[in-house]
Each structure stands twice: as C-alpha cells, then as structure tokens.
Amino acid sequence: MPTALSEQHTATVQTAVPPTMQAIVFDDFGGPEVLVAREVPTPEARPHDLLVRNASIGVNRADLLHRKGAYGRAYFGDADTMGREIAGTVGEGGPLVRGFAVGDRVMGIVGGGAYAELSRIDHRMAMHVPEGLGLVAAGAVSEVFVTAHEALFHLANLQAGESVLIHAAAGGVGSAAVQLAKAAGARVFGTASGDKRDAVLGFGADVFIDYRSEDFADVVAQATDGKGVDVVIDFIGAPYLERNVRSLAVGGRMVAVGLLGGAKGATLPMDAVLYRHLQIFGTVMKSRPPEVKQAMVQRFAERWLPALAAGAIWPVIDSTYPLADAAQAHSRMESGVNVGKILLLPGAA
Asked: What is the pTM (predicted TM-score) of this model?
C-alpha cells in the first residue's frame, strides 16, 4: 500500500532516492552525436512536485529543436536539460501535492529534464496511468494526446458529424488526433506518405491521402462535393497554408500546430477567410504559462482517460531505445520514417 502524500502541509514524503542519476546532456548544440549520458545530481522535489522514477520517456520534435539550439540554454520550469514527457512511479512528493501517493503510476509533461532516470513534475501536470496500460506505453500518451485534444476540441471545437483534415497523420500528434477525432464521431481525412497508408487507416482515418502523389486539396474537394472540411489540423506551415484555407468549409477552423515545412513564403487567401467566415488558431504548449498548461492536461484527462483505460484510444509506439542511445532515437525521428512515438527506456541495455 503506497504511503499517502501529505494532505495538509509540512514534511515531504519520500522513499530512498539516490543523490545522482544518469541523464542525457549536451555540451554544444548540433546533431544527434552531441547527446551523451552523464551522471548528474538528482533533482529535489519542490512543494508541488512529484519525483518520478522514469520507466518511459517520450521523444518529441521540440527535443530536436532544443538540441540544435532553437531555445538556447533556456530553463523550462523543471530543469534546463532535455525532455518533456515521462511515465513512471512516484518516489517522492512535496507537501502541497494532492491526489497522488508514493508508488502511484503516473504520466505527464515536464518543463525539461525528462531524459533522465528521475524527473520532477508539478503534480498538476501529471495524470494517473489507467489500469491495463503499461508504463512503457504510457510514456507515449501525454504530449501527443494533450496537444491533439487542445487543437481539435478546445480550439477548433470539433463536433460529431463534422469533418477534419489531419496532416502528418502517422506522426505522434497526428496519430493521436486521428484517434480522438474518430472517437468523437468526425469524418477523418489523414495525409502521410503512401507507405503509411495502412497505419493511418488503422488509427481510424476514413480517407487516406498520399501527400507525395496526391493534392490533398483536390481530394478533399472531390470527397466533400466542393464543400470542404470543417477543421484542418496542420503541422506543415507555409507550404500548405493557402490550400488548407481553401479546403475549409463555411465556418471552418484551422489550427496550426507545427512548422515542419517552414514559416516563410505563405500566401493567405483573404477572400476565403472573409467570405467563408473562417477562423485560424495557433498553439504551442512549451511557451504557455504553467496554469494554462495545467488546464490543457486536465481537459484531456477529464474527457479521455476513461477511453484510454477502455482501449478505445491507444498510444502508438514506433520504437524504443535505451536512455543512453538517445542520439539514435533522434536520428530516427529526423529520418521521418517513424509511425507514432519514439521512446527512451531508462535501465534498458
């Protein structure tokens, strides 16, 4: 029976925590080869923190940008080292923690420091891992599903019976978005390379579009009799902007989640925006205030944790690597061949 964390104030509850741990660090910005494993001090739990023994760590595109220097030597709230997503077991908790106990299985989003044997996480950014979901798989949930839920439902207000076009539908966020949209009763269009067709259809897409051989705007127009889709979830950026907007139905909503194709050179067809009464949103979790990120996590948890427990939605795992092989994991993500999430596993050989 796990020891309950303090419901009142004072002392931190803890189990034996080593003074140092293995973590992935880099001395210089650059390619995957700059990532190295090193012993570093174990972080201390602050009043609202859980200290988690990581079983699984999600690799995200933001990590690649961090490694290349896009954020400089920024501090993201929990650590100045790399990584945003963890799953593991609570080993210690601060006096202001509520709803969690030592020994609980948790998953969540951290402000840096995920690429390590232990990470600290504000308990308001953590979720209980549903029964039946393993800790390794749980490491592939938080970042992608919270982001997908925020884009689809909080911003775009996707409703049952509507249609949605999801780009990069074989990636981490894309595969989560396809599942959530389908579970919500939407008609789902998904784009990816042709070799990922079966995977995207398996996530629940109704119409698959091979972006290499098909023009997604033409496919959408034909499949909707020229009406367009109600929502577009975009990860590409400038190269897709004009076609995305022209693919929206009257009253349509587009949410920009990434810029894989770059930010410059976009053409925004203002006639379509004006006369079709369109809305365009952008969302990035990393730069949001803590209370906003906490609300994003809670919105996903309240609506979708039961579905995750029931297996109605599930984490899509491409591959796993030992923590020390983080460079190889980054290389795989940069290759673009992955379907779903890439995970790091502390303790794996």
From this structure: 0.92
